[in-house]
Amino acid sequence: MFSTLLVAFAIVVVVNCIFYLLFANYAFAKSSPPVEQNQTPVSVIVCSKNEAENLKNNIPLWLAQDYISFELILVNDASIDDTLDIIEDFANKDSRIKIVNVVNNEAFWANKKYALTLGIKKAKNNHLLFTDADCKPASNLWIQQMASHFSNEKQLVLGYGAYAKAKGFLNKLVRFETFMAALQYIGFAKLGMPYMGVGRNLGYTANLFYENNGFMSHMYIRSGDDDLFVNQAATKSNFVICDSPESFTISTPKNSWESLFNQKRRHLTTATHYKLSHKVILGTFYLSNVLFWLGLLVSFVFIRWEFVLALVLFRLIVQYIVVVKALKKLQETDLVYFVSILEIVMICFQMVIFITNLFSKPKHWK
What we know:
Elements: H1 2-27, E1 42-48, H2 52-63, E2 70-77, H3 83-91, E3 97-102, H4 112-122, E4 127-132, E5 135-137, H5 142-147, E6 156-158, E7 161-163, H6 169-190, E8 202-205, H7 206-211, H8 227-233, E9 239-241, E10 249-251, H9 257-271, H10 276-302, H11 305-329, H12 339-359
């Protein structure tokens, strides 16, 4: 039993470390510089549902971007607050703003993909950038940095959508989970396996959208306008990563455990519709993390502590080398000292969400 447990735990550690070594390909790579400083016309599309206050704060920031040729398409998705009034007020003052007003339609009610499709159809430019109403650009070069990566071959730009820093453990957990998701989707994309992007900071061409029939293959799934589209449309050669700090967007994080729980329930439901190969790889990584911490507890009981300690230290060293480097790239360095505890809490949190989703369906686009 001693040798069997030791071998099993060693296999888990090796598998887990292999994933982190794969992520090192991104963590230690130089941030991708802009391909060229062009002024390709861009359409920025923001879909909003009951986001009046966020729009008041963020529309001026989008309009203040240091970019000559862009339009801002603001989609009001059947809001019941003052969202439409706010949009119309700004539109009356700036001709770059175009309005799409989505009314309640029973066939597509609560489906953000329908609203986004109307926004894309409204766009006059081929190059599209997407963000959310509660997101602000990290700099006035956001459009320039993201748009400069478009080319004849590169029709999909994967950006990083950070969350604002605040006090408290919940904020750290939100940002760590976001960081780990980015480490995976950017890390695997760097290896030629793009499987998702985040709608908080994403770019693609209208041509790519129409070539893939938009969201039609997963329109019946109410979430996934960002990751499922990337999962469907991305190839080994048609995407590019944009991770310069000036290209980040910063979102308002969830400020309660309940709201975070509901948000992650939706995200987990969407992930079940990824390509099988992606689900297997991502599932293996998650399982190796779970088994590492469970195996650590079991192994210390049945295996000599010297062997267990050696394996644990090896795994933690490999993880920290890669994670710390990536945290610096994505400007989340304050999380360095909490990596292990955040990882344990995140794993438990995700497990509870998975079990909950087995018994009830999450609510979607509010």
